[in-house]
Amino acid sequence: MEGSSSQGSLPARPPTFTSSSSSPRGSSNLRPFLRPYGEISKLDFKEQTPEERYGIPENFLEIEVRNPRFHGEGRNKYVDYEIICRTNIPAFKLKHSSVRRRYSDFEWFRDTLERESTRVNIPPLPGKVYTNRFADEIIEQRRQGLERFLQIVAGHPLLQTGSKILCPFIQDPNFSRDNF
Predict the structure, then answer these.
(1) Are residues 106 and 113 in contact, defined by beta-carbon separation less than 8 angstroms?
(2) pTM, 2 dp
(3) 23 near 32, Cβ under 8 Å?
(4) pLDDT means per 10 residues in the chain (180 residues)?
(5) Which residues in 40-110 belong to E strands, given as ranges?
(6) Taken in order 117, 119, 122, 154, is the CA torsion positive or negative?
(7) Do 74 and 86 touch, CB atoms closer than 8 A?
(8) Closest to 106 in 3D by CA, of 131, 143, 141
């Protein structure tokens, strides 16, 4: 038989990169980079330069909540936290910013985000504490929870592009709830 081969009708391995015009799409290749693993050598990989390895990534966003500070006395005592933002994402106006916000600001911010964006599930804040709320371990747990909250919210692409309050809350030192 003229059309038969000893390999049968199925190829023994996937097609490799060729410029054959017998392909169903003319001269284009269906799977140009598909090769058996054993045929891949170190020559197929480009060594990274130190700039590629350690340089600034294409998009980065670092949010840090730190440096809790006590204000007031007695019933008027409260804590605010410093929010540090470093980014090169175009949605943010500043590449580096530092602002201070208190827990009640975070509560307002979360509630406003929920009303503003119905398509995004906004994570919860760390719980409200009513006893011993100024103890060091309570302040540290709250700080960690607020940092985690902001990292999730600020990293969400729909909020980066669709929220009117995300960037001002994180970056504007003159932020006021009354403006929103």
Answers:
(1) no
(2) 0.69
(3) no
(4) 46 46 47 60 70 75 95 92 94 94 96 92 91 90 97 93 93 90
(5) 61-71, 78-87, 96-102
(6) negative
(7) no
(8) 143
